[in-house]
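Why should sequence recovery work at all? Because a backbone constrains its sequence more than one might expect. Tight turns favour small or flexible residues, buried strands favour hydrophobic ones, and helices have their own preferences. The token representation captures these environments compactly. In the example below, the structure is given first.
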């Protein structure tokens, strides 16, 4: 799931950490499109999904997609596909 999510992030945004130090439990993504992360999360919530934004100064500059616990690759794929559909609607 981590490999899939990182590959998706590099295709659509950018990874935040140096990949050598990336977590195996979540992927932190740089918001290279300058989308409103809170707006993205609001739209995902309508679909019963949620991501996390960054902390402090990184709050709208990064977001995180988890891939741990009871999540499956199908769950992560569903979230990334939903993000792709939502992106054009964000301003």
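From this structural description, the recovered sequence reads:
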């Amino acid at each position: 799931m981590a490999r899939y999510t990182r590959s998706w992030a590099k295709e659509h945004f950018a990874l935040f950490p140096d990949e050598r130090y990336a977590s195996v439990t979540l992927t932190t993504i740089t918001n290279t499109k300058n989308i409103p992360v809170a707006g993205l999360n609001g739209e995902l919530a309508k679909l019963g999904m949620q991501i996390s934004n960054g902390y402090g100064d990184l709050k709208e500059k990064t977001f995180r997609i988890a891939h741990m616990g009871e999540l499956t690759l199908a769950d992560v794929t569903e979230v990334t596909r939903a993000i792709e559909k939502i992106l054009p609607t964000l301003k």
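A few observations help interpret the result. The chain is about 40% helix and 15% strand.
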